Amino acid sequence: MQFLQKLLSDRNSIYAERLKVRAQDDKHAERAAKQAEQQRNEMLNCKNAYLISIAVANNAKAQFYDISLPNLEDQFRVYLVLSKSWAKFSNDSLCTEQLQQRFVERFAKILQHSQSLQLDHLDSLKNRLSRVDAAFNRVDPVEDQNIFIDHNMRPFTAPDDWTFEPCITHYDTASKELDQLSSQFSSYTVDHTLGPIDQLTENLLEARHDFALCTSLERVLKSEEEIISSAIGASTTSSTHSSSDIPPNDLTARVLFNFTPTSEFELEVSEGETVRVVEADDGSGWVKVVNMQRRGGLVPASYLEHAANQTPATQGGPGQHVRAMYAYEAQGPDELGLIEGQTIELTTGSSGGQNYGSGWWEGSVLTPQGEGEYFRIIM
Question: Is the pTM of this model over 0.90?
Answer without folding.
Answer: no
